[in-house]
Amino acid sequence: MKANQQCIVMGAQWGDEGKGKIVDLLAAQADRVVRFNGGNNAGHTLVARGRTWKLNLLPCGLLHGRPGVIGSGVVLDPEALFREINAVQQQGLDVTPDQLTVSDRTALVLPMHRQVEAAEESRRRRPIGTTLRGIGPAIQDKAGRRAIRAGDLADATLLEERVDDLLSYHNALLTGWGEPTVDKDVLLQQLRALAPRLLPYVDAVPPLLEASVRAGERLLYEGAQAILLDVDHGTYPYVTSSHTAAAQAALGTGYGAAVQATVLGVCKAYTTRVGNGPFPTELGGPDGDALRERGGEYGVNTGRPRRCGWFDAATVRAGIRAGGIQSLALTKLDVLDGLPEVRVAVAYRQKEEFLQEPPADLSGDLEPVYETLPGWSQPTAGIRDFHELPAEARGFVGRIEELTGVPVILISTGAHRDDTIVRGCPFYGSRSSTHPPVIDNHPPSAHVADDVRRH
Ligand code: IMP
To answer: How many domains does the structure of the chain reveal?
Structure first.
């Protein structure tokens, strides 16, 4: 394998860091784009080919003419997939089985999973604020060894056995909750109707990725959610139900050599969070409102406000270690333009104790210990050369590098794809492609994962 033949892009905070723009930038350098975690709880809006595209499940490289792969670490809602395929088809992009491979081991998200999730969330004493896309229950079924996997659709007898096992569990649960149960015949009928549509896309992913790398192709792994939402290493229980660390790229594809990829974490120059859960550097009141306004921190579709606060180097540093992040892409630097000073949390204080490391439970009486840095008055928006940044902005970036221990190799200074400072990103540069690029004068793009929420 050549150096820098594979790259993993993942979120280094609580999601919505602007991964969409970075993945879009790098997809043009890749031959295949691979999803390995999450499901349609993730997503972004991209403007490409002169149009706006909303993608939740489809790997974004399809917009660049690059084939996409959905690995077994994704849980796949087939209804959502075909809705998305139809939507992009109406916009002029055909997603044929030549261009999209779904792993035969991918567990399916079924309508009952959304029903179960809504019932569970409404009964929690402290709701998590999930996306209600059925992701958690589908992953629980996978771990419970009762999931229906994409490849099961090919075997009618096996499928019926699986449905029996699935419903014996869920109908008992739904009955106990006093919720309507799931009808076996209706579910089987839905799955049988799905089989001829989905199966043409279904194949074994590990040999495909191995052959691709052997042929010299470059693989971009598109991470969903972010390390602080990881089920083990995030702010449990206010997390997603799967792993979001770079190691998941190997586990969630079955291609172990993905661990050799370059790992790029994406973080904002400040912090945002959607859903419930601890957020030590959250700014309340007018300061939080001001940052939200400056950053346009509202879901693009729903307009729902995101929680906003200062950059938290202590959690990002821990996330870098857990996630296997080797370098950072820093986004939305321009949002801090004009502030007299900027703050960065470097540690915490709990009662009288000084904590260098974030504790397992970030909630409670935890106070961030801030370092205050000088702000900059000249605008950074649109700057594409690091040396043109105001000295204070360069100082801020340098301090983030010191505090997190990794280099900042990409800096985004605006929504437009070209508003980016590239400082030696190993995956960015000349590519020897087998797939011709789609010529495109590109786009603002925005990560809108929180917009897929239904509540
Ligand atoms: P779930 O993934 O739907 O189970 O939601 C669990 C938590 O993760 C909720 O707080 C969601 O808001 C959050 N979440 C899930 N996916 C994303 C994402 O892609 N970006 C940001 N937050 C997310």
So the answer is: 2
- If asked whether residues 322 and 338 sit together in one domain, one would say yes
Q: Give nearest CA residue, ligand 1 atom 2.
A: 240
CA dist., res. 258 & res. 250, Å (int)? 5
The verdict on 156 and 273 lying in the same domain is: no
Q: Which atom of ligand 1 is nearest to the CA of 453?
A: 12
Question: Which residue out of 44, 77, 117, 131 has the highest number of ligand 1 atoms within 8 Å of its CB and is therefore the one to mutate?
Answer: 131
- Residue 126 and residue 72 share a domain: no
- CA 131 to ligand 1 center in whole angstroms: 6
Q: How far apart are the CA of 152 and the centre of ligand 1, in A?
A: 28
The residue with greater pLDDT, 302 or 437, is 302
User: Ligand 1 centre from 390 Cα, in Å?
Assistant: 35
Average pLDDT of the chain is 92
98 in any annotated domain: yes
User: Is 444 inside a domain boundary?
Assistant: no
Nearest residue (by CA) to ligand 1, atom 5, is 130
CA of 212 to the centre of ligand 1 (A): 31
- Whether 44 is catalytic: yes
| More confident site: 424 or 423 | 423
| Whether pLDDT at 377 is above 50 | yes
Q: Say whether both 324 and 231 belong to one domain.
A: yes
DSSP 444: B
Helix (H) or strand (E) holding 314: helix 313-323
Query: Does residue 437 form part of some domain?
Result: no
Cα 170 to chain centroid, rounded: 28
pTM passes above 0.85:
yes
Nearest CA to ligand 1 atom 10: 275
Residues 125-152: what's their mean pLDDT? 96
Beta-bridge partners for 48: 51
301/394 Cα distance (integer angstroms): 34
Q: Containing domain of residue 223, as a range?
A: 6-104+204-422
Residues 133, 40, single domain; the answer is: no
Pocket, ligand 1, Cβ cutoff 6 A: 15-16, 41-42, 128-131, 133, 135-136, 224-225, 229, 238, 240-241, 274-275, 449-450
Sign of CA dihedral 349, 354, 358, 362: negative
pLDDT digits (tens, 9 = 90+) for 88-111: 999 999 999 999 999 999 999 999
Which amino acid belongs to residue 174?
A: L
Residues 228 and 307 in one domain: yes
| Axis-axis angle for helices 313-323, 391-404 (nearest 10) | 50
Quote the DSSP letter at residue 304.
P
- pLDDT tier at 431 (50, 70, 90 boundaries)? low
Q: Which of 9, 10, 14, 41 to mutate to test the pocket of ligand 1 (most atoms within 8 A of CB)?
A: 41
Tens-place pLDDT, residues 340-359: 999 999 999 998 899 999 99
